[in-house]
Each structure stands twice: as C-alpha cells, then as structure tokens.
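Long-time lurker, finally posting.

We've been working with Natural cytotoxicity triggering receptor 1 (Bos mutus) and I want a structural starting point before designing mutants. I don't trust myself to interpret raw outputs, so I'm hoping someone here can both generate the structure tokens and explain anything notable. Sequence follows.
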Amino acid sequence: KPSLSAWPSPVVPQGQHVTLQCQSPLGFDRFRLHKDDRTNVPELQGIIFWKNFLMGPVTEAHAGTYRCHGHYSHLPTLWSAPSDPLEIVVTGLSKKPSLSAQGGPVVRSGENVTLVCSSESAFDQFHLLREGVNLGRPLAGGQGPRGALQAEFPLGPGTPDHSGVYRCYGSFTRSPYSWSDSSDPLYLSVTENFPIPIISATPSSVIPWNGSVKILCQGTLESYLYQLEILENLTYKQVEKKLGFQEVVEFIINHMDTNTAGRYQCRYRREHRWSAPSEALELVVTGLYDKPFLSTDGGHVVMPGENISFQCSSAYISFDRFSLSRPGGATLSRHRDARLQGDFTLGPVNLSFSGVYTCYGWHSGHPYVWSAPSNALELVVTEMLSKPAIWVRPSFMIPKGRSATIGCRGAGEAMEYQLHFEGGLSALKRPKSSPVMNWVKFPIPAMTSHTAGQYRCSYRSGELWSELSDPLELVVTGLYDTPTLSVEPRSEVTSGENVTFHCQLATATSTFFLLKKGRSSRPQLRYGNLRAEFHLGPVTPAHGGTYRCFGSYNNHAWSFPSKPVKLLVKAPHEQLLCSSDPDHLLWNHMIQNLIRLGLAVLVLVALMGFLLEDW
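Top reply, 14 upvotes:
Generated this for you. Predicted structure of Natural cytotoxicity triggering receptor 1:
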C-alpha cells in the first residue's frame, strides 16, 4: 500500500490550499483519492493524478479522512490496497480559544508542565499542537474556575524537547475535523543549565524624547547569537540580532520616540538552542507633555523607620497615571486620586531611600509615553538628626534692660526644642503646628549680665535628640563708662597706609573690643588697662566704614559704645585729584577756566545762527 501525507500541514485554515502526496516504493505512476465519509468533493470525482494533488481553497466540506490507491498505467484495472488514513482538519470555523501555561511559559528542566486551553464558546473538545503537529487525542472540555470551558494538557516533567510554539483549537464531537480558529501562539521554554539572560538599559530606562539609549543583554561566554525583541500583547517581534561569542552585547536605539518606547526582552542562542527570554525591560520616552509639580507634606530629612509622602500633580493636563522616579531606583506608578494628583507613600524608609526624586504624568492608554520630569526633590534619610540653626534678633549686642529673641530651627518633624545656656538646660519648647516653618522662639525679656553668655539649642524627632547647634554669643552693653575712640594718622587715608585706632576708658578694665558697623559678629579683641591700640594695614577701601569700641571685664558684659569714628580709605588716583598742593590747585583752576571759555564760545555761535536765520 502507498503512504499519504499533506504539505505543509494536515491542519489547514479555511480558504487556504493543501497538497496531498501519495507515494509508494513499488513505483506506481497513477494514484487516486477517496474520502472515507463519501461526502461529495467535486474535484475528487474521477481524478487520477501522479504523486501530488493540490486541494483548495478548502471549506468545511473538505474536512475529513482521506486514503489513496496506486496502480500502473499499463495495468489500469489492478489497484493497490488503500493507504493508511490521513485526517485533514479545516480551521477558522469559530472564534479562537486562549492558551496559557500553569506557572508561566518558562520552566526548568524536570518541572511539571501543564498547558490550559479555554474558551467562552461551548466546545466539548480541545486540541493541542506544537509547531503545527497534533499532539494526540483531543481532550474533553470542563468547567473552569471562571466559568469558561477548558481542557488541561499535562506534558509531564519538562525537557528541552518540550520547548517550542504551541497553539490550541476547540471543536465539537459531531464535527471532529472542523476546528475553531487558532489560539494566539504560546512560546514554551524549558531551560537546562542555561541561565536566564539579564537585560538592562544605560544610562536609564527613562529617556528624553530623541535621546539615545543602550540596551545591554548579558548571556554566557558560549553564546554565539543574541536577539532583541519588543513585546506586543502576548507575542513578540524581533528587533535586532547580533553575532559574537561574548557575554554581553549592546543594542543601541539612537532616537527614542513613541515607536521605540515599549517593553523589551532578549535571549541568546547556545548549542543550537535558544535560552529563555529575559525579564521584560520597560523603555519610557519623556517630554511629550508639560511637567507636573512634585511636593511633600513633611520635611526632606527623615529618620530610618519613618514614612514620607510625595504628591505629584498637574494644573493643566488631566493625567490619569503618575510615576515617581529616582536614579538607580525603582519607579512607582499610581492612579490619579480625587484631587487630580498621585500620592506616593514611602516607608518605613532606610538609608537606601536617600536620593533625588522626580515625578511624571502619563495616560493609561499610552503607558510608555510620559511628560517632562517635574521639579526635583532631595530626600535625606539619616541616622543622626542634622544640627539645628540658632540666631538672635535684633543683634548679638543688646543694651542692658532691652529685650531679645533667640530662634532655633530644626529639620524634619521636630517635636521638641531645648535651649542651653553656658552648658546647662535653660528652656524647653514645643513648636506650633505650621505647614511652612518648623522653629521656635525663646524670648529674653530684659538683658542683664546674668542672661549674657553662650547659647546653644537642640531638638527632638521621635525618640532621638539632635546634636547641639553652633554656639551663639550674646553680649550685654551699657554696664561701664563710655570709652573714647580715635584714629591715627587721620580719618582719611590712602590705600596702602597703616592706621591705628586708640580706645581709652577712664576706669581700669581688662579687655577692649573694636567693631566695624556691618561686621558686628566679628569684633577685634585687645587686652589693656586704660588704653588699647588696634593696628590696621596696609588698608584697602574695604577697611573703610564706621567703627566703635567697648571696654569689658569679660567677654559678655561690655561698656557703653564709644562715639562712632568714620574711616575713609581712598584709592591713589582719588588722592591725586583731591590734593591740596598749590601747583595742583593752579592746574585745576586753569582747566576750569578753559572749560568755561569753551562753553561761552558755543553759546555765542548759537545766538549768531538764530539772528542770521531771522534776518
């Protein structure tokens, strides 16, 4: 008997053609076909062919079981026995089912593999094919967990031979050769000693419009071919292939736009087999919409274990998705809430959360096309509270009996403040609730020698106290007589000269201070009994200004201030113009007279012009 086969496959989509091939080692030169169910297929009636018979376009009537017979042309009445039956299946006669793999399409060798074919249609049997080859008897459908009809195809412990592209079909027992349309293809990968490749993007997977990006695919040194793919729904499309025995290859996208944004994966080929695909890499293009605004309710400095919330909002574009991003960190995405913003709560945070954050807005229909980046906010997670800032108003020098206010500002959510005076605790305060400021005031109602001295402050957040602030030195003035201040050689000098200030007090003291207006936080100190000298020079115009001096027995209790002395430092050319030398004065008068004479001539010429015009 001859053998009967179909090319390219006995499973034929409706409307396509199929070639039936009848062959025999006995050298028959004539063949004929018949259909077991004896339905009328017009093109088969009375047809005798030589080896190949093209059938189609196929319809449901072509579905069924076929056999062929052979004979010799010189013995037309002697036919061979029939071939074994060949089942021709016609597909596309109803909606397609869906195919999935329990546990995912990538499995390790030895793990059990089960494929599930399901459909909303009332099929009573399902068929599974790999690379177009039917894998055996159909399975009856049963009720699935979500109400759909389904059949489970157990493939057993997976081996690399199970790898391939699978499809499934549904049908009815009354028409066993009339099947549904094919399911979407499912690529099953059974790996054995092949590490899954690692895919990454540099400098980032979030790329500005028209920017470039490198996609790195890491395989093994034995890999001789790499393939980059872009995912499209349940399938993938090849983007590029690269040859080379290397562990890492680069795929470059020179210009990012909406067509190149999407989900990518890569795989490598080794020992004539493909590896499993890498995890998906999402490439996002940014800058297609105006940037949103990023804010936070609390401070930017938090302690480990605390939570922090960011808000991303747009005043002009109704985004329905927002993403929070940090270089080198994961990107978080959120739905828009009732306030038209995305809320992101991080925490409990640790030191790895520190960094600069930005946010983006986008639309759910285009998940890989984002806005321009928002303003940047830096988050600092520290195990040590930062040092607070301390200051005083109106000045660090306060006349006796006058009031002053010390301010202290902490970082983050400060709950309590302490003021320390001369090394001991002086006052304790809790800040008032404020969305803008986090600081407290410590008032001094009347300044005395007992309230003058060195102050520091600290604050508490949670259970942790900060370190002390830098020292603040407060001075009370008006406790002694008024000193006198003079300057030598004179109060107006030329740049480069040396000057000396003399501060003198009628009653004996131990310390003198010289202060320049505008630089009162850095006084000069000299020791003396009744008099002290302060040498400056060579002076520059920066030394010019108003000076006062004080006398004191300690660093925080001073006398009344002296009367102010103004020092004027002139540049050399200014000195030349202001010189009182008689020759210079004579020269200056001559210049002035020449200027006056020139102006008079110009006026006279102008008058003559007017007269001539009238005449």
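Before you design anything, note these points.
The first helix runs from residue 572 to 577.
The CA atoms of residues 456 and 470 lie 6 Å apart.
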